[in-house]
Design a protein that fits this description.
The chain is α/β, with parallel strands linked by helices. The protein contains 20 helices and 18 strands. The protein has 2 domains: 3-174, Rossmann fold (3-Layer(aba) Sandwich), CATH 3.40.50; 205-395 and 437-514, pyruvate-formate lyase- activating enzyme (Alpha-Beta Horseshoe). Helices cover 41% and strands 16% of the residues. It starts with a strand and ends with a helix.
């Protein structure tokens, strides 16, 4: 096979890690589908692992992926001309480089192409590594297609827009920007048949109504300018939406082939075009899909109306996540969300009233955030009416705007982490720990203080909400519109009792334990 696409493994320090199963690599599956549209076959390989017992121990590190020997055998057997690697996250970009070096050890003539969020932002430093030949910047379908055509036809790639590379003399340069794809319907559905789709899904999220759930993306881009966000590096700020008919066709195809009847919309700005979002709900109803769905990445509350919530509910949306991030107006202005909290509260309460489950996401630990701002966030979560609130500690990613504020104030400087050659192992371990751990020192709080605040926030919220359900059971009764709803409420009550018990336990380890099983013991065994 001439073209391979790799979803990379990830490595963490043994002293601080958590095992997370690989998720469906939609990015490279879109690339594979696009290549296939033009008659170019390829294979997709997952280099990560699905069972923690397959982890590879290397000194003080744990690789949650295939061994070098396994990868070398795979590459030798396929003998490709091109291997594309998705390089999304700054925290794991060195794994992508290690994977590239493994490829070059097998055959130095294989062209290694990196793409994704981190690659698009830090193409200059990645190309300093001799194992990396080309970086695809931004949206990848058209760019990777042209790269493959040129290499397979022994033509130069230097005129392809949207890439960065080294010329024959070793000079690193970037070509002209590539225009974004305006017609997303022209892109084929992700090539799910090229992977073991069911293995990725596993048993599904225990909080799902009809597990497992398949992920779907109905739009690209986000016009917002949130200081902590990094998604614009690939899909830009120009929002583009797929047609309702195209989205529903994909949902129907997945349901028919894989017997999946729940979906998670992973859009960054799903409802920015209100008319399209309402038409999408109408199309789901018209096609009688009989599916359930959620919006785990969050919905911009200022783009919603009560009428739209009604449409979502009728179309099968049973749980909606609102991206609140802060309950303090000043902090919301700083992060780029200067929208009405009262409007958010009104929509949350209305969603509850019509039987939807509600979640809000909140971020603690912005660089200039004081105690009263954090208290406002916790208080808003408790009194907004949301069924559950997530409190995340901010980890400033180097590709985000907020990182520059931390750097300016002398709170964090991880620029060396991005240098592919000039960093000591000791410094790498230190920075790797920072990016793996939650939270960061701010002007007013240490990381340790923020962790205590986070635990306190969860404990305060969960106790408050449990008492609300106890003394006002009508909240739960409103969620029941069918037999399926009734049994889902019972399911959540059972899990909720466990969460409540852990909340009261003073030896509770970390907030993540509410939802994820500890994997360290498994690895040690």
């Amino acid at each position: 096979m001439e073209i391979l696409l790799f979803n990379p493994y990830y490595t963490q320090l043994r002293s601080f890690y958590s095992f997370v199963r690989p998720v469906v690599p939609l990015g490279i599956l879109y690339l594979a589908g696009y290549l296939r549209k033009f008659g170019i076959p390829c294979k997709v390989y997952e280099t990560g692992i699905f069972d923690i017992k397959d982890a590879v121990n290397k000194d003080e590190y744990v690789r949650f992926g295939r061994s070098d020997k396994q990868l070398e055998t795979l590459i030798q057997s396929e003998n490709p001309k091109i291997i594309g690697i998705t390089c999304m996250y700054s925290i794991y970009y060195r794994d992508c480089l290690e994977l590239a070096k493994t490829i070059k050890r097998v055959n130095k003539n294989i062209r290694v192409v990196l793409g994704g969020n981190h690659a698009s932002s830090y193409w200059q430093t990645l190309l300093l590594d001799p194992a990396v030949d080309i970086v695809a910047i931004g949206e990848g379908e058209e760019t990777f297609l042209e790269i493959c055509r040129c290499i397979m036809e022994d033509r130069s790639v230097e005129a392809i827009p949207g890439i960065a590379l080294k010329n024959s003399s070793g000079r690193i340069f970037k070509t002209a920007d590539r225009e974004l794809i305006s017609d997303l319907d022209s892109i084929p559905f992700p090539a799910l048949d090229l992977v073991d789709f069911r293995e990725y899904l596993g048993e599904g999220n225990p909080f799902s109504m009809r597990p497992p759930a398949a992920s779907i993306i109905s739009s690209r881009g986000c016009p917002g300018k949130c200081v902590y966000c990094t998604v614009q590096a690939v899909w830009g700020r120009t929002w583009r939406g797929r047609s309702p008919e195209n989205v529903v066709s994909e949902m129907a195809a997945i349901k028919e082939k894989y017997q999946i009847s729940e979906f998670a919309f992973l859009d960054d700005s799903a409802s920015i075009n209100r008319e399209r979002w309402k038409n999408l709900c109408s199309e789901i109803i018209r096609k009688e899909l009989n599916v359930k769905w959620t919006t785990p990445n969050g919905i911009a509350h200022w783009t919603l109306t009560k009428e739209m919530l009604q449409s979502m509910r009728q179309a099968g949306c049973y749980r909606i996540t609102f991206g609140i991030e802060s309950g303090c107006p000043e902090t919301r202005k700083f992060i780029g969300k200067p929208y009405s909290l009262e409007q958010a509260r009104e929509l949350i309460q209305y969603a509850n009233k019509i039987g939807m489950w509600t979640i809000t996401t909140n971020i603690l630990g912005f660089p200039y955030e004081k105690a009263d701002s954090i208290k406002a966030t916790i208080d808003f979560a408790k009194h907004s009416g949301t069924d559950f609130a997530c409190f995340f500690l901010l980890v400033p990613q180097p590709t985000s705007e907020v990182y520059q504020y931390f750097k300016k104030e002398g709170l964090l400087d991880i620029d060396n982490f991005l240098d592919t050659g000039n960093i000591s192992s000791e410094e790498f371990e230190k920075i790797n720990y920072i990016l793996n751990d939650a939270g960061c020192n701010t002007l007013y709080f240490s990381k340790e203080e923020l962790k205590k605040i986070q635990k306190s926030a969860y404990r305060s919220f969960i106790i408050h909400r449990a008492l609300t359900y106890l003394f006002n059971p009508l909240r739960l009764i409103r969620k029941v519109h069918s037999r399926e709803d009734f049994f889902y409420v019972l399911k959540l009550l059972r899990r909720g009792a466990s969460v409540f018990y852990r909340t009261l336990n003073p030896f509770n380890i970390k907030s993540g334990d509410f939802f994820y099983a500890d994997t360290k013991k498994q690895l040690q065994e």
